[in-house]
Amino acid sequence: MIGFIGIGIMGSRMAARLQNAGKALVVYNRTKAKADTLVAHGAKWADTPREVGAQADVVFSMLANPQAVEAVAFGNDGLLNGLKPGSIWVDSSTINPATSVKLAQAAAEKGVHFLDAPVAGSTGPAEKGELVFFVGGEEKELEKVRPLLDIMGKAVQYKGKSGSGTAMKLVNNLMLGQAIAAFSEAVAFGESLGLDKKGLIESLFAGPTCAPVLQFKEPKFLKEDFDQADFKVSSIYKDMELASEEAYAHNFALPLSNFVKALYGLIKQQGKGEYDFAAIYSLLKK
């Protein structure tokens, strides 16, 4: 039995990939209704994270932030009180490396193996099984769950000791947030010069400077419709804040990303935290 905790935008799609591959699931989510589709297709519902751990040999979690992961892990009804010795907990949440290390240590005290395995990719890749997993922890435990990761992703990159996967995810999302901001500013600038937006975007895509993720966002830029989020403003803001905190702890400056982070914070302050993070274009447009 495979456990899955966190049936949100990403977790629902990842769990569905496992279910569609014939894997038996036991699931938990703070809002039960979000798991209704999985349960309707045969997944078992658990009332607490502890019940998930008691029934599963491998548990995946995909949660919003470090606080949510710790809330699931600890306490009388927490996952760590249910997991059996020898079982594996794979956390795909985007959190800070220090929290991943703390969770790995707490798991080890219970005889449980912990892997931090956040992903690169949003809703589209999650639905298609094209995520990229960045994994930290024991490599031999990774090999045990690799077949499951292969169902949900197109690549698995082992990064080293506990916390290394989450460290790589923060680096990835730091660049992601800046790439969307730079593209948004370039498009808005081009429009201010009188260039047609569709042709402008096509020309940018034809050059060497655009990351593949930007092409995925093209419809949102053309329609200026950002209220249906593939990746929320609040999520990129949180991820860049985690990176900023980690940089401070390691005496490293992030001058460019801290400015971009503030722009996403401003959008969130304007009540658009649930919008797609490409909404930064609307902020920068003349």
From TrEMBL:
Domain annotation 3-hydroxyisobutyrate dehydrogenase-like NAD-binding: ranges: 163-284
Domain of life: Bacteria
InterPro entries with a match to the protein in the record: 6-PGluconate_DH-like_C_sf, 6PGD_dom2, 6PGDH_NADP-bd, HIBADH-like_NADP-bd, HIBADH-related, HIBADH-related_NP60_sf, NAD(P)-bd_dom_sf
Active-site annotation: 169
Record-annotated 6-phosphogluconate dehydrogenase NADP-binding domain positions: 2-158
EC nos: 1.1.-.-
Keywords, sorted A to Z: NAD, Oxidoreductase
SUPFAM superfamilies given in the database record: 6-phosphogluconate dehydrogenase C-terminal domain-like (SSF48179), NAD(P)-binding Rossmann-fold domains (SSF51735)
Family: Belongs to the HIBADH-related family.
Protein name: NAD(P)-dependent oxidoreductase
Species for this entry: Sporolactobacillus sp. Y61
